[in-house]
Amino acid sequence: MLEPCLDDLEARIDPLCEERLLGEWRDYCAGRFRGGYFSPRRVRKAPPRIAWPTVRINAALENVDLMLLQQYRMCSDQLAAGGGQMLMVRSNYGTPIMPTLFGAQLFIMPDETDTLPASHAVDGGGVEVAQRLLARGIPSLDQPYLQRVFDAGRRFMAVKRRYPNIGRHVFIYHPDLQGPLDICEMIWGSQLFLDLYDHADVVHAFLDLITRTYIHVLREWEKIAPFETDSWAPHWGIMHPGRIMLRDDSAMNLSPEMFREFVLPYDQRLIAEFGGGAMHACGKVDHFAPFLADIQGVSAFNMSQPELNDVEKVLQNTIDRGLLLFNLKPAAAQAALARGRNLHGRVHCS
Question: Could you give the CA distance from residue 250 to residue 253 in angstroms, rounded to a whole number?
Protein backbone atom coordinates (compact mmCIF):
# COMPACT_ATOMS: atom_id res chain seq x y z
CA MET A 1 0.00 0.00 0.00
CA LEU A 2 2.97 2.35 0.49
CA GLU A 3 3.74 2.95 -3.17
CA PRO A 4 0.20 3.96 -4.23
CA CYS A 5 0.06 6.36 -1.30
CA LEU A 6 3.40 7.90 -2.21
CA ASP A 7 2.22 8.28 -5.81
CA ASP A 8 -0.91 10.03 -4.53
CA LEU A 9 1.09 12.37 -2.27
CA GLU A 10 3.53 13.21 -5.06
CA ALA A 11 0.68 14.14 -7.40
CA ARG A 12 -1.08 16.37 -4.84
CA ILE A 13 1.91 18.48 -3.81
CA ASP A 14 1.63 21.91 -5.46
CA PRO A 15 5.19 23.31 -5.62
CA LEU A 16 4.02 26.92 -5.87
CA CYS A 17 1.76 26.50 -2.84
CA GLU A 18 4.55 24.86 -0.81
CA GLU A 19 7.11 27.49 -1.79
CA ARG A 20 4.71 30.24 -0.77
CA LEU A 21 4.13 28.64 2.63
CA LEU A 22 7.86 28.07 3.12
CA GLY A 23 8.46 31.72 2.34
CA GLU A 24 6.01 32.71 5.08
CA TRP A 25 7.82 30.46 7.56
CA ARG A 26 11.20 31.87 6.56
CA ASP A 27 9.93 35.41 7.02
CA TYR A 28 8.60 34.50 10.46
CA CYS A 29 11.89 32.87 11.47
CA ALA A 30 13.79 35.93 10.24
CA GLY A 31 11.64 38.33 12.28
CA ARG A 32 9.79 39.79 9.31
CA PHE A 33 6.26 38.77 10.35
CA ARG A 34 3.95 41.64 11.24
CA GLY A 35 0.66 40.86 12.91
CA GLY A 36 -0.94 39.60 16.09
CA TYR A 37 0.33 36.03 15.94
CA PHE A 38 1.63 33.84 13.16
CA SER A 39 -0.78 31.11 12.05
CA PRO A 40 -0.32 30.39 8.32
CA ARG A 41 -2.53 28.32 6.04
CA ARG A 42 -2.12 26.85 2.59
CA VAL A 43 -3.94 28.75 -0.14
CA ARG A 44 -5.82 25.63 -1.21
CA LYS A 45 -6.78 22.16 -0.02
CA ALA A 46 -5.66 19.03 -1.85
CA PRO A 47 -7.79 16.05 -0.77
CA PRO A 48 -6.48 12.51 -1.30
CA ARG A 49 -7.41 10.65 -4.45
CA ILE A 50 -7.21 7.25 -2.78
CA ALA A 51 -8.11 5.93 0.69
CA TRP A 52 -5.03 6.12 2.94
CA PRO A 53 -4.93 3.43 5.65
CA THR A 54 -4.54 4.33 9.32
CA VAL A 55 -1.37 2.88 10.85
CA ARG A 56 -1.15 2.34 14.59
CA ILE A 57 2.07 3.21 16.37
CA ASN A 58 2.94 -0.29 17.56
CA ALA A 59 2.61 -1.62 14.02
CA ALA A 60 4.84 1.19 12.71
CA LEU A 61 7.50 0.36 15.32
CA GLU A 62 7.79 -3.16 13.93
CA ASN A 63 7.60 -2.51 10.19
CA VAL A 64 9.54 0.22 8.40
CA ASP A 65 7.05 0.35 5.50
CA LEU A 66 4.30 1.07 8.00
CA MET A 67 6.49 3.68 9.72
CA LEU A 68 6.82 5.48 6.39
CA LEU A 69 3.13 5.13 5.67
CA GLN A 70 2.20 6.55 9.08
CA GLN A 71 4.48 9.56 8.63
CA TYR A 72 3.49 10.35 5.06
CA ARG A 73 -0.16 10.00 6.07
CA MET A 74 0.33 13.08 8.27
CA CYS A 75 1.59 14.98 5.23
CA SER A 76 -1.46 13.83 3.28
CA ASP A 77 -3.73 15.06 6.07
CA GLN A 78 -2.06 18.50 6.02
CA LEU A 79 -2.67 18.83 2.30
CA ALA A 80 -6.26 17.67 2.66
CA ALA A 81 -6.98 20.20 5.40
CA GLY A 82 -5.10 23.07 3.80
CA GLY A 83 -3.18 23.37 7.07
CA GLY A 84 -0.26 25.66 7.75
CA GLN A 85 2.28 23.07 8.86
CA MET A 86 5.18 22.30 6.58
CA LEU A 87 5.27 18.75 5.25
CA MET A 88 7.76 16.63 7.18
CA VAL A 89 8.51 13.14 8.44
CA ARG A 90 10.79 11.54 11.00
CA SER A 91 11.91 8.18 12.34
CA ASN A 92 9.17 8.18 14.96
CA TYR A 93 10.47 5.80 17.64
CA GLY A 94 9.88 7.95 20.71
CA THR A 95 11.88 8.90 23.78
CA PRO A 96 13.69 5.54 24.38
CA ILE A 97 16.12 5.97 21.47
CA MET A 98 18.96 7.28 23.61
CA PRO A 99 18.22 5.35 26.85
CA THR A 100 18.21 1.99 25.03
CA LEU A 101 21.80 2.67 23.91
CA PHE A 102 22.78 2.49 27.58
CA GLY A 103 20.77 -0.68 28.22
CA ALA A 104 17.30 0.61 29.11
CA GLN A 105 14.52 -1.83 28.26
CA LEU A 106 11.61 -0.77 26.07
CA PHE A 107 8.14 -0.55 27.52
CA ILE A 108 5.71 -0.94 24.62
CA MET A 109 2.34 0.61 25.39
CA PRO A 110 -0.88 -1.38 24.96
CA ASP A 111 -1.95 -1.17 21.34
CA GLU A 112 -5.29 0.44 22.17
CA THR A 113 -3.50 3.51 23.56
CA ASP A 114 -1.79 4.12 20.18
CA THR A 115 1.06 5.82 22.02
CA LEU A 116 4.82 5.81 21.56
CA PRO A 117 6.82 3.52 23.87
CA ALA A 118 8.56 4.39 27.12
CA SER A 119 11.49 2.64 28.80
CA HIS A 120 12.53 1.20 32.16
CA ALA A 121 15.51 2.53 34.10
CA VAL A 122 18.65 0.46 33.50
CA ASP A 123 18.76 -2.44 36.00
CA GLY A 124 16.55 -0.49 38.39
CA GLY A 125 18.65 2.68 38.10
CA GLY A 126 20.59 4.54 40.75
CA VAL A 127 24.10 5.83 41.24
CA GLU A 128 25.79 2.40 41.07
CA VAL A 129 24.33 1.78 37.62
CA ALA A 130 25.49 5.23 36.49
CA GLN A 131 29.01 4.54 37.74
CA ARG A 132 29.11 1.24 35.87
CA LEU A 133 27.96 2.91 32.67
CA LEU A 134 30.52 5.67 33.12
CA ALA A 135 33.28 3.07 33.24
CA ARG A 136 32.13 1.73 29.85
CA GLY A 137 32.20 5.11 28.12
CA ILE A 138 30.25 6.01 24.98
CA PRO A 139 28.13 2.98 24.06
CA SER A 140 28.25 1.24 20.71
CA LEU A 141 25.74 2.50 18.17
CA ASP A 142 25.28 -1.05 16.91
CA GLN A 143 22.10 -1.40 18.96
CA PRO A 144 18.88 -2.81 17.43
CA TYR A 145 16.51 -0.01 18.37
CA LEU A 146 18.82 2.75 17.15
CA GLN A 147 19.44 0.80 13.96
CA ARG A 148 15.67 0.79 13.32
CA VAL A 149 15.78 4.58 13.59
CA PHE A 150 18.66 4.77 11.13
CA ASP A 151 17.05 2.27 8.73
CA ALA A 152 13.87 4.35 8.58
CA GLY A 153 15.97 7.44 7.89
CA ARG A 154 17.59 5.68 4.94
CA ARG A 155 14.18 4.75 3.58
CA PHE A 156 12.96 8.33 3.87
CA MET A 157 16.01 9.46 1.92
CA ALA A 158 15.34 6.83 -0.76
CA VAL A 159 11.80 8.20 -1.17
CA LYS A 160 13.19 11.75 -1.50
CA ARG A 161 15.44 10.59 -4.32
CA ARG A 162 12.64 8.78 -6.15
CA TYR A 163 9.85 11.38 -5.96
CA PRO A 164 10.75 14.94 -7.06
CA ASN A 165 7.92 16.78 -5.27
CA ILE A 166 8.30 14.78 -2.07
CA GLY A 167 12.06 15.19 -2.30
CA ARG A 168 11.82 18.96 -2.53
CA HIS A 169 8.85 19.72 -0.29
CA VAL A 170 8.72 16.99 2.40
CA PHE A 171 11.43 17.56 4.98
CA ILE A 172 13.06 14.95 7.20
CA TYR A 173 13.61 16.07 10.78
CA HIS A 174 15.82 14.51 13.38
CA PRO A 175 14.47 11.77 15.68
CA ASP A 176 13.46 12.34 19.29
CA LEU A 177 16.77 12.28 21.14
CA GLN A 178 15.36 14.33 24.03
CA GLY A 179 17.85 16.40 26.08
CA PRO A 180 20.67 15.36 28.43
CA LEU A 181 18.73 15.58 31.70
CA ASP A 182 15.69 13.79 30.25
CA ILE A 183 17.92 10.96 29.04
CA CYS A 184 19.65 10.85 32.41
CA GLU A 185 16.35 10.50 34.27
CA MET A 186 15.14 7.69 31.99
CA ILE A 187 18.35 5.73 32.55
CA TRP A 188 18.84 6.57 36.24
CA GLY A 189 15.23 6.47 37.41
CA SER A 190 13.45 8.77 39.84
CA GLN A 191 16.24 8.30 42.40
CA LEU A 192 18.05 10.86 40.28
CA PHE A 193 16.23 13.72 41.97
CA LEU A 194 17.76 12.80 45.33
CA ASP A 195 21.14 11.99 43.82
CA LEU A 196 21.33 15.50 42.38
CA TYR A 197 22.03 16.44 46.00
CA ASP A 198 23.78 13.31 47.26
CA HIS A 199 25.95 12.45 44.23
CA ALA A 200 26.18 15.64 42.17
CA ASP A 201 29.67 14.76 40.92
CA VAL A 202 28.48 11.45 39.45
CA VAL A 203 25.42 13.14 37.90
CA HIS A 204 27.64 15.72 36.21
CA ALA A 205 29.98 13.04 34.90
CA PHE A 206 27.05 11.06 33.55
CA LEU A 207 25.48 14.12 31.93
CA ASP A 208 28.82 14.73 30.24
CA LEU A 209 28.83 11.15 28.92
CA ILE A 210 25.26 11.50 27.68
CA THR A 211 26.10 14.78 25.92
CA ARG A 212 29.09 13.23 24.14
CA THR A 213 26.96 10.25 23.14
CA TYR A 214 24.21 12.56 21.87
CA ILE A 215 26.72 14.32 19.62
CA HIS A 216 27.96 10.97 18.31
CA VAL A 217 24.42 9.76 17.53
CA LEU A 218 23.27 12.97 15.85
CA ARG A 219 26.44 13.16 13.77
CA GLU A 220 25.72 9.62 12.53
CA TRP A 221 22.12 10.60 11.80
CA GLU A 222 23.42 13.61 9.87
CA LYS A 223 25.32 11.24 7.57
CA ILE A 224 22.00 9.55 6.73
CA ALA A 225 19.75 12.62 6.52
CA PRO A 226 21.90 15.76 6.33
CA PHE A 227 20.59 19.01 7.75
CA GLU A 228 19.06 20.87 4.82
CA THR A 229 20.41 24.31 5.75
CA ASP A 230 22.50 25.93 8.47
CA SER A 231 19.95 28.67 9.12
CA TRP A 232 16.70 26.87 9.94
CA ALA A 233 15.35 23.39 10.58
CA PRO A 234 12.03 21.53 10.42
CA HIS A 235 10.37 20.02 13.49
CA TRP A 236 6.77 19.07 14.32
CA GLY A 237 5.47 20.84 11.22
CA ILE A 238 7.17 24.13 12.10
CA MET A 239 10.37 25.77 10.92
CA HIS A 240 12.73 27.19 13.54
CA PRO A 241 16.08 28.97 13.30
CA GLY A 242 19.03 26.71 14.03
CA ARG A 243 19.37 22.98 13.48
CA ILE A 244 18.21 20.95 16.49
CA MET A 245 15.32 20.77 18.95
CA LEU A 246 16.24 19.86 22.54
CA ARG A 247 13.72 18.66 25.14
CA ASP A 248 13.81 19.63 28.81
CA ASP A 249 10.69 17.89 30.14
CA SER A 250 12.46 16.72 33.32
CA ALA A 251 13.41 20.30 34.16
CA MET A 252 9.92 21.04 35.49
CA ASN A 253 11.03 19.08 38.58
CA LEU A 254 14.05 21.30 39.26
CA SER A 255 14.50 24.63 40.98
CA PRO A 256 15.88 27.51 38.89
CA GLU A 257 19.26 27.07 40.58
CA MET A 258 19.35 23.37 39.74
CA PHE A 259 18.34 24.09 36.16
CA ARG A 260 21.30 26.44 35.88
CA GLU A 261 23.64 23.77 37.25
CA PHE A 262 22.38 20.51 35.74
CA VAL A 263 20.62 21.52 32.50
CA LEU A 264 21.99 24.73 31.06
CA PRO A 265 25.67 23.73 30.57
CA TYR A 266 24.86 20.52 28.69
CA ASP A 267 22.13 22.08 26.58
CA GLN A 268 24.57 24.87 25.75
CA ARG A 269 27.17 22.39 24.52
CA LEU A 270 24.69 20.72 22.18
CA ILE A 271 23.26 23.98 20.86
CA ALA A 272 26.79 25.23 20.16
CA GLU A 273 27.88 21.94 18.58
CA PHE A 274 25.02 21.92 16.07
CA GLY A 275 24.86 25.58 15.19
CA GLY A 276 21.88 26.73 17.25
CA GLY A 277 18.34 25.50 17.71
CA ALA A 278 15.16 25.49 19.72
CA MET A 279 14.02 24.19 23.11
CA HIS A 280 10.86 22.33 24.15
CA ALA A 281 9.49 21.53 27.58
CA CYS A 282 6.23 20.07 28.85
CA GLY A 283 4.58 20.99 32.13
CA LYS A 284 5.49 23.99 34.26
CA VAL A 285 8.32 25.96 32.71
CA ASP A 286 7.98 29.55 33.90
CA HIS A 287 10.48 29.06 36.76
CA PHE A 288 13.33 28.30 34.34
CA ALA A 289 12.14 30.41 31.39
CA PRO A 290 14.45 33.28 32.49
CA PHE A 291 17.47 31.12 31.55
CA LEU A 292 16.39 30.20 28.02
CA ALA A 293 17.66 33.35 26.33
CA ASP A 294 20.94 32.97 28.23
CA ILE A 295 21.74 29.81 26.20
CA GLN A 296 23.76 31.19 23.31
CA GLY A 297 22.31 30.01 20.03
CA VAL A 298 18.79 29.25 21.30
CA SER A 299 16.36 30.96 18.98
CA ALA A 300 12.95 29.59 19.92
CA PHE A 301 10.93 27.89 22.64
CA ASN A 302 7.95 25.56 22.57
CA MET A 303 5.80 24.94 25.63
CA SER A 304 2.88 22.58 25.43
CA GLN A 305 0.77 23.55 28.44
CA PRO A 306 0.35 27.32 28.92
CA GLU A 307 -2.50 26.67 31.36
CA LEU A 308 0.09 25.38 33.87
CA ASN A 309 2.22 28.49 33.59
CA ASP A 310 2.34 32.21 34.15
CA VAL A 311 2.15 32.98 30.44
CA GLU A 312 3.16 36.61 30.90
CA LYS A 313 6.35 35.52 32.65
CA VAL A 314 7.12 33.16 29.76
CA LEU A 315 6.45 35.93 27.22
CA GLN A 316 8.75 38.31 29.09
CA ASN A 317 11.56 35.78 28.98
CA THR A 318 11.09 34.61 25.40
CA ILE A 319 9.58 37.03 22.89
CA ASP A 320 10.63 40.14 24.84
CA ARG A 321 14.20 38.85 24.71
CA GLY A 322 14.21 37.99 21.01
CA LEU A 323 13.14 34.33 21.07
CA LEU A 324 10.31 32.94 18.95
CA LEU A 325 7.51 31.11 20.78
CA PHE A 326 6.05 28.13 18.92
CA ASN A 327 2.73 26.31 19.08
CA LEU A 328 1.18 28.54 21.72
CA LYS A 329 -2.50 27.75 22.02
CA PRO A 330 -4.56 30.42 20.22
CA ALA A 331 -6.61 31.17 23.35
CA ALA A 332 -3.45 32.15 25.23
CA ALA A 333 -2.28 34.41 22.41
CA GLN A 334 -5.71 35.97 22.02
CA ALA A 335 -5.92 36.66 25.76
CA ALA A 336 -2.53 38.40 25.63
CA LEU A 337 -3.56 40.54 22.65
CA ALA A 338 -6.87 41.41 24.35
CA ARG A 339 -5.02 42.95 27.27
CA GLY A 340 -2.91 45.03 24.89
CA ARG A 341 0.16 42.78 24.98
CA ASN A 342 2.67 43.34 22.16
CA LEU A 343 3.68 39.93 20.79
CA HIS A 344 6.41 41.47 18.57
CA GLY A 345 5.47 39.19 15.66
CA ARG A 346 7.26 36.32 17.46
CA VAL A 347 4.35 34.11 18.59
CA HIS A 348 3.20 31.19 16.49
CA CYS A 349 -0.13 29.44 17.09
CA SER A 350 -0.98 26.13 15.44
Answer: 6
What is the per-residue pLDDT across 177-204, written as a single tens digit (0 to 9) for each?
999 999 999 999 999 999 999 999 999 9
44 SS3 class: coil
3-state secondary structure 283-294: CCCCCCHHHHHH
- Long-range pairs of 226-229 with CB within 8 A, sequence gap ≥ 24: 228/171
CB 108 within 8 A of CB 148: no
Return d(Cα 272, Cα 260) in angstroms, integer: 17
Task: Determine contact, residues 64/71, Cβ cutoff 8 Å.
Answer: no
Does pTM surpass 0.90?
yes
| Ordered DSSP codes for 17-33 | HHHHHHHHHHHHHTT--
CB 248 within 8 Å of CB 262? no
Q: What is the mean pLDDT of the chain?
A: 97
Residue 75 main-chain phi, psi, to 5 deg = -65, -45
pLDDT tens per residue, range 291-305: 999 999 999 999 989
